[in-house]
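Why predict the complex rather than its parts? Because the way molecules touch one another can change local conformation, and only a joint prediction can capture that. The input here totals 1111 residues.
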Amino acid sequence: MTKILLANTDKPDQASIGKYRERGGYKALEKALTMEQTALIEEVKASGLRGRGGAGFPTGMKWSFVPRNTNKPTYLLCNADESEPGTFKDRLLMERDPHLLIEGMAIACYALNCHLSYIYIRGEYEFVANTQQKALDEAYDAKILGPSLMGKDYPLDIFIHLGQGAYICGEETSLIESLEGNRGYPRIKPPFPATHGFLASPTVVNNVETLASLPWIVQNGGAAYAAIGTEKSKGTKLISVSGHVAKPGVYEVDLGYPLLDFINNEAGGIANGRNLKAVIPGGSSVPVMTAAECEGALLDYESLLKAGSMLGSGGMIVLDDTTSMPETLSVIADFYAHESCGQCTPCREGTGWAAKILKNIVAGKGQRSDLDLLLKIVDRMEGKTICPLADADVMPIRSFVTKFRSEFEALCAS
Amino acid sequence: MIEFSPEAKKRFQTILSHYPAKRAALLPVLILAQHEFGWISQEVAEYVGALMDYPPSDVLSVATFYTMLHKKPAGKYHIDICKNVSCWLMGVNPCIDEIKRKLEVERREVTADGKFSWDVTECLGSCGTAPAMQVGDRYYENLTPAKVAEIIDRLRQE
Amino acid sequence: MPKFTLNGQEVEAKAGQTIIQAAGDHGIEIPHYCYHPDLPIDGNCRMCLVDVEKMPKLTPACTTIVNEGMVVRSDNPRVKEAVRGVLEFLLINHPVDCPVCDQAGECRLQDYYMVYGLHTSEIPLGMKVRKRKVIDLGPMVVLDQERCVLCSRCIRFFDNVTGTGEMQFFGRGDHVAIGTFEDRPLDNPYSGNVVDICPVGALTSRDFRFKCRVWFLHATNSICAGCSTGCATRIDHRDGAIFRMIARRNPEVNRSWLCDEGRLSFHELTRSERVIQPSIKGSDGVQTPITWEDALQSVDQRLKQIRDANGGSSILGFGSPSATNEGLFLFKRYLTEQLGATQFEFRIDSEDKKVLDEEDQILRHFDKHPNSMGAIKLGLISDDLDGIDGAIRAARDGRIKAAVIIYFNPLVRRPSDDEAEGRIIELIDELKYSVVLAAHKADWHASADVVLPVAAWSEEEGTYTNFEGRVQFAAKAIESAGDALPIWEVFAMLIHASGAESRWMSAENVFATMTEQSQPYSRITFEQTQLPGVVLASC
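Output of the joint prediction:
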């Protein structure tokens, strides 16, 4: 496995700029600053890097949507709102290798002609933000950031902006709204952030892991990155694995690595000698996979999609055979009901309703017809909302109820 | 008449300087206000509104969107314990019961001595070290009911 | 002008229009809650979803701009199912309040349910989200948070139209509720508009609360007579009583808005007693009732006596800026053609200046009369007299012996009104002979020689000319009191009593003559006075 993101996270004092530079840090930025901005964008395109927050949109393509001949400022926003249940990789990167993120952001800012950038960190990660801020202060002291980016006539400021407890703010337009000082209501698209983002200016929102991948890509070239992984999924991905495994944690895999191998090797297999029952491969918003469906599935975008699920954020939750699927789903449904912003009808009402029905079922007060009602509710939610949070509720509900129906029925009266 | 302390006023100016538009500073200012005043009361919303030149309805509207901004008084130590998937799989419910047993208040209620309040919260990003809870800017992970009790006792002494 | 296909028909849209706007222009209503033609687009209700070929997902018609060649369907099963789904979602937490909710009969949930829903509720009552009800938001508005469908129209109204931002969302998810800070009452002159635009019974009118079921009301198109803006309105009435007045959309004047004072101005009509019969002062100095025929005979004869003795210039015509164009036109015609009168005024308090003075940036003008501009255009001003003060002086000096005075109580009151009324009393006291046309009784009527009862606003049809010279038609909603007649009819009868030809049978007839005789009105037609009205060329 190639170590791109976790190359140094286990090394002592990696968070300090001295050690970071000693181990090769900020050389990529130096190199990037000798390149044309457009050439940098091409390099990122060639790498095949896709957004690592969950959507998987090609990063280079997203960057190329930003108009180059605009008289408005361009903004790069780092999405560190990591709130997808099962996901804890961005936290690790920021806690252990904050300068890697700074270097990646600086590269991105330079490529996009951005001079003012923000890291939107979820409010619960305040302690993480403190570490990240220390690193930023070090970068300013070292004159890497500030009026001249590493001595180049190019000012760059990076500030941290804390969220305050809203999962929806991880959606890029909601993040922008929240950064603007509003309720985090996602925006209607078009227009897209690339042309009308923060303060109606061109904006790119990238995930922490995406940005942290940039220094390696610049140092080694886009082609080298594209040589890792599969045809449609280039490079490496951080998988946060938790649940009923022996060795939960954050691991870096070459994309295309078999899912079951990952569970049995890196994650140490199912804990306590139990058996695998189901896997949620990419955060609670993706369809659950039965143990059988995991056979032959690879950890990449296209293979998991074919297997009926998604790579998402790579927040893998492993469920053993003691798990009650209805109860698990009820916990998940509660999450979406709580986090729905409330702006549009299907999500606002549908998430709440579905959560209540599931609570009833788990309490033994449900009917069999409730299961069909749940499936109807999710059909009425899917694809009809302003943002994909509704769809993120649809995926688990539909997959759990369909694939583990007998467990649900067992809890219901006829 | 509530007012920011001199340090908070300075911090307020620094916050404003980070943004090209004043409105963008609203959330950080609300965070600052919560640090100063403990929770976002109507009075605090009016004060922040006057400071930022927005109607208090607008300020409160923004505040009520974000879970971490308290809409009623909180304890000196507010415990947020995760009830999401991985924490639930790894046994958070007994830990929640332990909190209830130790503090003897319902969710979002403050103990008589004003020291504690608690609530359940969503995924904290500690799934690999679940169950987890947060108090202020500290995470407590790999919880068991015993550990929870110990943490509460320790905080009680502080 | 992009051409596109809507439900199989080829339709031409205006450049930049959204699907919902283009559809509306061609008589196809796409169901919606949050969209409003006079508010910024929000796209949150998801009710207006339509199927656009080549777009994988259904898209909201209110956010999608028409492109040339688009193929759109709002009527296929996919759309109908989606719309029904949204409606179902809106209804799951909606309280079953219809029996006690004022909105019933004009409620979009009810209306769309009958078209798209007709489903049985699948949520038990105990599972519904509960919110607060009957929240007092001040003199105009009552809030019921449970009924709200969170369309945000009211929020957008206060954010964008009044700029006061009182109403906002509080909370998140399905517990979001609209409200004001600390339940503070709405404190701006336009708060009543949110009742009009609320598609459900969340925001209802305190004034109209529980007074009448809307299906018992008759609707009449009118123009507000509260000030010189001339907002288009609709009067809802039943059995001769007005229950409420709401806005009619006139993009040229008031868009979809009314000010609160204007909205409630109809209450002034019933605030005091009406003059119901003509009366004449006898030799004992007491007003006694008399028939119309006798009254008009007497008036015409007496005025002619004064004319013969002192000349036509000794008779003053003091019109009212609250009278219709038709009324003022025949008023002037009778006095000039039958009596040779040359002096006309209507100004008590600089109405000719106030007519253009904006009281705020949104709608209101300082001049609380609907037809000052009409009075000006019809020539009811005298440079010599320069308002009522000059008239009083002239009367005192004996240059004016008699006057025919039209006086209406303003429908939107100001502290200076009593003083204004006092000037009329002063004028009458200086006159040898006065004829007063009024709708409401006043003590000072006793000083006049003849009092004639006339129809008030909403009791006759006619046109008014607003501050910008826009002539707009207001229909008759209710009957006037007793034997009161429209002003134009009084003067038509006087002209007849005077022995001249009098063929006018309707306000429209008078309007036609007015366009022949009065230069400012010469280029307009009666049809043009319908919405949005027509602006006089000389303005």
